[in-house]
Amino acid sequence: VEETLRAAEAPLFWVGACTVASLALWLLYRLVSGFRIWVLGNGSLLSPKLGKWAVVTGATDGIGKSYAEEVRAAPGVALAWQISRSQEKLADVAATLKELYSVETKTIAVDFGRSDIYSKIEEGLAGLEIGVLVNNVGVSYSYPEYYLHIPDLENFITNMIHVNVTSVCQMTRLVLPRMADRSRGVILNISSASGMYPVPLLTVYSATKAFVDFFSRGLQEEYRRQGIIIQSVLPFFVATKMTRIRKPTLDKPTPERYVAAELSTVGLQSQTNGYFPHAVMGWVTTKLVPSSIVIFLGARMNRLQRTGYLQRRRLR
């Protein structure tokens, strides 16, 4: 009887041992990968070897402006800026950077809410050796709202799709061919943590950001063998005008702090939250907590924000 029990226990022992060993190896791999990404980083990946010019959309404020400033830190990299309804504002910011950092700049004033702008952009970028493209321009809701209650819904839909979706596809169309010809280049598509799961009362915005994430990851698989890096960037809250967060915290960093952290992940992650506290938040909300609970809590938070906004507007 004892021999029979031992014979029956032997397979269970080896199953348990293999399971423990597999978990230990997985944990070790995750720790090493995390150390490589969040501590060591990618070194000086951004350099003139990728191309002389970097193109940043939505570069006059917030995350876009910080990307422009970080990219200019690479010696020998010039900077082409476009996107603003005000050429004057673009010129002022470009002149400031040129004075502070001695970089060559170009500006293109366009409204990404329009669909007839890309021939102008193509003409402006003609002949430039572009090594980095940051598709950052984006627009969100002025306040959380139910779909059918969004003011001027038809134009709202058109504008958001043009700015958040069409711009990413069209700018990539203009820049990617020359990168592919040279077998080098980096495209950073700024999505949002809102694109990781549906966000009620910000539904259209969330859906457009999910498109950016899927588009980026699919394109990365298409072109990675040609030496192109295409990264989907999904930040949580960052202290910018768009989020209306004025006081930075550990989980709501300044644009400068966020972008500096995010750039160290380029080439190491095809999809990234870009900043270690955000990566923890992303892991918790996608791996540990059921999506139904995340959606419910997001809806609850946005309903409260909607109520507060409407009450303040009535008081005014």
From TrEMBL:
It is an enzyme of class 1 (oxidoreductase). Gene3D superfamilies: NAD(P)-binding Rossmann-like Domain. GO terms for biological process: steroid biosynthetic process. Pathway: Lipid metabolism; fatty acid biosynthesis; Steroid biosynthesis; estrogen biosynthesis. Its EC number is 1.1.1.330, 1.1.1.62. InterPro entries: NAD(P)-bd_dom_sf, Sc_DH/Rdtase_CS, SDR_fam, VLCFA-Steroid_DH. GO terms for molecular function: estradiol 17-beta-dehydrogenase [NAD(P)+] activity; very-long-chain 3-oxoacyl-CoA reductase activity. Signal peptide: none annotated. It is a multi-pass membrane protein. SUPFAM superfamilies: NAD(P)-binding Rossmann-fold domains. PROSITE patterns: ADH_SHORT. It catalyses: a very-long-chain (3R)-3-hydroxyacyl-CoA + NADP(+) = a very-long-chain 3-oxoacyl-CoA + NADPH + H(+); 17beta-estradiol + NAD(+) = estrone + NADH + H(+); 17beta-estradiol + NADP(+) = estrone + NADPH + H(+). Catalyzes the second of the four reactions of the long-chain fatty acids elongation cycle. This endoplasmic reticulum-bound enzymatic process, allows the addition of two carbons to the chain of long- and very long-chain fatty acids/VLCFAs per cycle. This enzyme has a 3-ketoacyl-CoA reductase activity, reducing 3-ketoacyl-CoA to 3-hydroxyacyl-CoA, within each cycle of fatty acid elongation. Thereby, it may participate in the production of VLCFAs of different chain lengths that are involved in multiple biological processes as precursors of membrane lipids and lipid mediators. Belongs to the short-chain dehydrogenases/reductases (SDR) family. 17-beta-HSD 3 subfamily. This is 3-ketoacyl-CoA reductase. It comes from Tetraodon nigroviridis.
